[in-house]
């Protein structure tokens, strides 16, 4: 067995800072979103995914994979969103066991109303605090880590 490659002080600072920043930033932006629009972070993720599709519909299992949620968890969340008139659920024409989630006009109005305040929150708590160079580096870091994760996922 090889010895662990412990983090040095700089690496440890970066790792702990990233974890703390991610937790606090996610929590603050979620609070702002709920305060400003009444939408949860999960609601916003579903609505933005649906609104990004030309036909405003997404297979439940594909949406669950995109959100890194189980199908049952997403299905329960979709049921709550249906009650609020944000989405509807249709049977899948090609798979009798599958369903398709469809963005309603109410859901489209909700995401369009929420987006300006949401982006302002993202700017206020992250983007506007950074220099152009820092934003570029952050984007590069995200690309590197995401590519590695996608590669690791593909090798499983």
From TrEMBL:
Residues 1-147 form the HTH marR-type domain. Coiled coil: none annotated. GO terms for biological process: response to stress. PANTHER family: MARR FAMILY REGULATORY PROTEIN, TRANSCRIPTIONAL REGULATOR, MARR FAMILY. Signal peptide: none annotated. InterPro entries: HTH_MarR-typ, MarR/SlyA-like, WH-like_DNA-bd_sf, WH_DNA-bd_sf. PROSITE patterns: HTH_MARR_2 (PS50995). Pfam families: MarR_2. GO terms for molecular function: DNA binding; DNA-binding transcription factor activity. This is DNA-binding MarR family transcriptional regulator. It comes from Streptosporangium album. Keywords: DNA-binding. The keyword DNA-binding applies. The keyword DNA-binding applies.
């Amino acid at each position: 067995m090889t010895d662990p490659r412990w983090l040095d002080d700089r690496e440890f600072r970066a790792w702990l800072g990233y974890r703390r920043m991610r937790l606090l930033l996610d929590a603050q932006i979620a609070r702002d979103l709920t305060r400003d629009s009444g939408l949860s972070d999960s609601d916003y993720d579903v609505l933005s995914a649906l609104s990004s599709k030309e036909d405003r519909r997404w297979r439940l299992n594909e949406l669950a994979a995109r959100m890194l949620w189980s199908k049952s968890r997403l299905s329960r969340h979709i049921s709550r969103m249906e009650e609020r008139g944000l989405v509807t659920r249709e049977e899948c024409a090609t798979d009798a066991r599958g369903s398709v989630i469809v963005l309603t006009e109410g859901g489209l109005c909700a995401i369009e109303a929420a987006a300006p305040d949401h982006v302002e929150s993202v700017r206020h708590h992250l983007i506007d605090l950074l220099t152009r160079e820092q934003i570029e580096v952050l984007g590069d870091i995200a690309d590197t880590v995401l590519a590695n994760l996608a590669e690791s996922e593909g090798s499983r």
